[in-house]
Amino acid sequence: MDGSPTPGGQTVSAIGEFGLIREVTAGRAQPSTTLLGPGDDAAVVAAPDGRVVVTTDTLVQGVHFRLDWSSPGNVGRKAVAVNLADICAMGAVATSVVVGLACPPETPLSVVTELFDGIAAEAERARVGVVGGDMVSGKEIVISITALGDLGGRPPVTRSGARPGDVLALCGRLGWAAAGLAVLGRGFRSPVGVVNAQRYPEPPYAAGPQAAIAGATSMIDVSDGLLADLGHLARASGVGFDVRTELLTVAPKLVDVGTALGADPLHWVLTGGEDHALAATFPSTVDLPQGWTRIGATLMPESGVTVDGAPYERETGWEHWR
Amino acid sequence: MDGSPTPGGQTVSAIGEFGLIREVTAGRAQPSTTLLGPGDDAAVVAAPDGRVVVTTDTLVQGVHFRLDWSSPGNVGRKAVAVNLADICAMGAVATSVVVGLACPPETPLSVVTELFDGIAAEAERARVGVVGGDMVSGKEIVISITALGDLGGRPPVTRSGARPGDVLALCGRLGWAAAGLAVLGRGFRSPVGVVNAQRYPEPPYAAGPQAAIAGATSMIDVSDGLLADLGHLARASGVGFDVRTELLTVAPKLVDVGTALGADPLHWVLTGGEDHALAATFPSTVDLPQGWTRIGATLMPESGVTVDGAPYERETGWEHWR
């Protein structure tokens, strides 16, 4: 499944833009926050808080996903999940997404319908409406999703509120997608646990609002890698962080994969992106919400981001065009 | 200016993703609706109505724009304008946009900065915040913009509310972008009025909320061509329309260009897309708001969409992959 035409299979050019829109929107349920769904110039979504949280992420074939590694359904799930993770990292509850899709005319219809099945599945899992979109022709598959969310009356939890003395905590898993990438890159398709983690993340959506309610002072979703994203938090807040490796979970599965591939699983945990765990800081007086665990401490800015008190010497994150 | 590297010019790969983000966000003002702007996992935008209007449009190089015909700044303006037109076609006031951009590593930095200058200029013209975005690598330039808007307590004006007997009315110009496309396609660069109309539309943003306040029963922005978009209104509302050509404005400039190129300017007015005028229906008892003019009548569905009482025999609109 590489997005090339299948003999006898229908392509998007055969069905056309409007046929394709009908194909991917028919029969989809909407949550109660969707006041006016797809089919008009724009959609209308409930924003009971009187403010709306908005974020956008674009996924490009060959850069963010490969259709020989992931099914179109996996890619659809991933495209939604990476956006919803950003919404919940503000402490908000996601309400809706819109989907911009560019794809070549020879794209098999099944690729697009399965992509939207994945989008719908992940949206449903998070009780989020797929409320609109745009489908256009292009040389490669580019999926651009924008997600909206509601703050429920709370202030947004930004990257800039961490204070020295705060507890550094994590919810969700790290290193799995990186381990999956290493496996896939060597031509393997198993173990399925890490491979699936690379295909699509499973961010802990509810943990964002829970952290906000508990009093989190700053929060970010780990998309570029723990140390890279803590660097973003550190710069925005004007603090430093020390991550304690004895507080990190290195799952036995990652140890197995690391042993098999001759790789260091702790490096995946510290630097692997795309798992979309949440990292947050809490005042030291707070009881961490369920699912959150302490992984280190918030320090003065001059400390930088350290691991067990020392700088981390290896490559720490991903940057486009670099 | 075709997006290829200029000798000695800096490229996006040289400055990197984070440098590029700094480059295009630095020093941009935000309207009061932007409660939290770019730089965090997500932005926060005022939604005083308690509902938010959302729409998305994706523009692809070579499909929606050509950098040998339009400057990057024009493309940025166009990418924003086509989205804001959808927001105002719901009767809403646009508040913000987010921008997803994919581009090749060898894209000159100036192309991206000028693109964002255009985005910012059009947003400022409409008092809309550019509140966030995502920049990634891809094989071609793809700009995916999502716009948000506020209904100010009014019901959205959908495509489905037209009733037989309603007045069919228009605000904004038609045929200009099509005339510009014909000029550019023949290798000319003037007259500049029609050429610029092809480069970026100037939708009448305020006319959408004004129509809603006046009691418009249905509304759409003319992106695919008047007859094609009236077809969308007709199907959604279960009505027919008759457009009266004696009520349409065929600007002297379009007549001139038509004469020069041996083309029918009325065809451009009836079928040319990309001008993003607004078409709406009003109860016959309503005084049309300023800037709106009657162009025809709303009929029973079996009439279809006709011109001076007869079916229009030529090609009426654009569809992707067709």
Automatic annotation (TrEMBL), chains A, B:
Reaction mechanism of ThiL seems to utilize a direct, inline transfer of the gamma-phosphate of ATP to TMP rather than a phosphorylated enzyme intermediate. Mg(2+) 5 binds at D224. This is Thiamine-monophosphate kinase. Pathway: Cofactor biosynthesis; thiamine diphosphate biosynthesis; thiamine diphosphate from thiamine phosphate: step 1/1. Its EC number is 2.7.4.16. It comes from Saccharomonospora amisosensis. It catalyses: thiamine phosphate + ATP = thiamine diphosphate + ADP. SUPFAM superfamilies: PurM C-terminal domain-like, PurM N-terminal domain-like. The keyword ATP-binding applies. Mg(2+) 2 binds at D57, D86. Residues 39-149 form the PurM-like N-terminal domain. InterPro entries: PurM-like_C_sf (IPR036676), PurM-like_N (IPR016188), PurM-like_N_sf (IPR036921), ThiL-like (IPR006283). Mg(2+) 4 binds at D41, T55, D86. Belongs to the thiamine-monophosphate kinase family. The keyword Magnesium applies. Substrate binds at H64, E274, W318.
